[in-house]
Amino acid sequence: MAENEIEYEAKGTYEAALEKSRQIEEDIKVNPSKYRVLTGDRPTGRLHIGHYFGSLQNRVRLSKMGVPTMVLIADYQVLTDHDAFDQISQNTKQLVIDYLAAGIEPGENTIIYPHSYVPECNQLMLPFLTLVSNSELSRNPTVKDEITKSDLAVVNAGMYTYPIHQACDILFCKGNVVPVGKDQLPHLELTRTIARRFNKKFCKKTPPVFPMPYALLSKTPSIKGLDGSAKMSKSLGNAVYLSSTADETAALIKKAKTDGERVITYDPVNRPEVANLLMLISLCNGQEPEAIAASIGDGGSGKLKSVLTEALNEELRPLREKRAQLEKEPDYIRQVLTEGAGRAREIAVKTLDEVRSAMNMVI
Ligand code: TRP
User: What CATH number is given for 246-326 in this structure?
Assistant: First the structure.
């Protein structure tokens, strides 16, 4: 396909994605059955409160609204930016425990599965690879960023092609809403490009096979690490995990970075660390961060930290209790995954049939 024939959509600015996300958010309340949510995580470790407030709560809310929800565990994707693979299965099971403890309920409407168990989904990779150019793959900003941050000895081809695999994840089930963070927007744009090109090239005489999926951007501001760094992450040791104990939570918050000013105010620009802690309290108790700051007043960092410790441990207590119970039920966790994979496969087989027939490959 010549470069000038490639249909570019109105170039994906963040504002356009945000606007679309707001529209979906409104419509989904009225027409939940028009949508299918596909979301997922790489099984690289346990989930922390950044995931909980940023995406988990949103997923639970959507599935409770009656939107069919597919929760995918992207185990193959771990191989693209990690050399180590010894923990994948264990991490997958811990992810399921985190999901269930947070309130995701597998059943009629919601399934959880690892994509490595859905061969028909993975097979979409072959036609999709032919719909994208090398240069499109190498200019993906999220991929470039991950290459810079990874400690891979060699940058493998999977690193460049996993966004196509992500398109397989989304399109095999005809997902049209993908709750993600800003960093995943380039992958969503590529997924739409693939869907559009597939429909245009192969579905001239038949209805289009794939819908256009859009991001549902979380309204929660991104949560910084407790050491004040830009992101809460396992490798920086600045995260409170859903699986942390109340004491571990208290210890980490005690070490959290603040500033020397005694009077607590909510000032995200000039006092980002204090603002982050206030925001976390706000996410737990629903009060405005300004009001929380005013009530702490000249109690200083000590008071701020004790209020946060109590609010967070209180918020997470039921989840942690459920988590501890689920840890004792490995057979059930395995069953959730195998049943989920079975259901995902049924969907994938149907889509692959349509794809095969559109591509003129039925024998
Ligand atoms: N790339 C995502 C991440 O790193 C994980 C992922 C894989 C995903 N496939 C997906 C997310 C499909 C949403 C939809 O977090």
Answer: 1.10.240.10
Determine contact, residues 210/174, Cβ cutoff 8 Å.
Answer: yes
Q: Where are the domains of the chain?
A: 3-220+330-358, 246-326
Distance 58 CA to ligand 1 centre (A): 15
Average of per-residue pLDDT across 184-195: 96
Q: Which two tokens stand for residue 269?
A: 């620009």
Paired with 114 in beta bridges are: 73
Residue 178 in contact with ligand 1 by CB distance below 6 A: yes
d(CA 102, CA 116): 24
Could you please state the CATH topology (level 3) that the domain comprising 3-220+330-358 is classified under. Answer: Rossmann fold (3.40.50)
What pLDDT score does 236 carry? Answer: 81
pTM (predicted TM-score)? 0.92
Distance 247 CA to ligand 1 centre (A): 32
Classify strands 177-180 and 110-114 as parallel, antiparallel or unpaired. unpaired
Mean pLDDT of all residues in 327-351 = 98
AA letter at 113: Y
CA–CA distance, 4 with 154 (Å, rounded to integer): 33
Q: 62-84 pLDDT, tens per residue?
A: 989 999 999 999 999 999 988 88
pLDDT digits (tens, 9 = 90+) for 306-329: 999 999 999 999 999 999 999 999
